[in-house]
Write a structure and sequence with these properties.
Layout: H1 2-58
């Protein structure tokens, strides 16, 4: 029983340290995903702008 309590307390005390260390990794992953989304939206927006300008030149 003492072993289980010490194991539980050890995991509870280590959780904030793990969360603090993983916060940097999560931030890096979020930044990479945001950059990919911005690039995708920029590419899509540029395609729409070129298509729109192409239609106005044909009129």
């Amino acid at each position: 029983m003492e072993y289980l309590v010490s194991l539980f307390l050890g995991s509870v005390l280590q959780a904030p340290v793990l969360i603090t260390e993983s916060r940097q990794v999560v931030g890096l992953i979020a930044a990479a995903l945001a950059a990919m989304l911005a690039a995708r939206l920029g590419w899509h927006g540029t395609d729409r702008l070129i298509a729109w300008r192409g239609r106005t030149d044909q009129d």
